[in-house]
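Lecture 7 notes: from sequence to structure.

We start with a single chain of 167 residues. Read the sequence below before looking at the structure.
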Amino acid sequence: MILTNKKSVNAGPSFGTGKAHSKRWYVALVRMHHEKKVSEYLDKMGIENFIPLQQEMHQWSDRRKLIESVLLPMMVFVHADPKERVEVLSLSTVSRYMVMRGESNPAVIPDEQMARFRFMLDYSKEAVCMSSSPLARGEQVRVIKGPLSGLSANSSVLTVRVRLLSV
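Now the structure, written as C-alpha cells:
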C-alpha cells in the first residue's frame, strides 16, 4: 500500500487562474533521511509537494513494526512557480534540483507524467520496487505484473518502473 502526503495534491493541470499555469513539477534533491522534514517545511511555506511513501513491516529481534518508508530516497517532488522554486532552495536541507544530463536548467516533470506516477502508486497492491537498470528516453515499456499488468507506455523525463519489461 502506498501512502502520500496527508494533504491532497492535484497532479493534473489547474484551470481558472494564470498563476496555476506557471506551476510545474520539479525534483528537489535533499539531504539523506530529510525527505519528510522538507515536505513539512514546504507545507508550512504553502508550496505543494509530494513524497512517494509506502508501508513496510520491519522485523527486529524483539518486535515487528509497520513503518512508512520513502520510495525514492533524497527526492521530493515540488509543484512550484519560478518564485517558489527559488524559495525551496533556501532550505538548508535542499541541495539542488535534478537536471537532465548535459543541461543546466531543472528538469520539468510533465503534469500528465506525475498524474500517471501517482496513479500507479495509489493502485499498486504490492510493494513498489525501483529498478536501477538504464532505460532509454522514449523507450516502450510494459507492466508485466500486478493490477496494471499489460499497461504499455513510453519512458520519458521521469522513469518510474514497477517490474517493467522492455518491449
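Residues 1-18, 157-167 have pLDDT under 50 and may be disordered. Keep this in mind for problem set 3.
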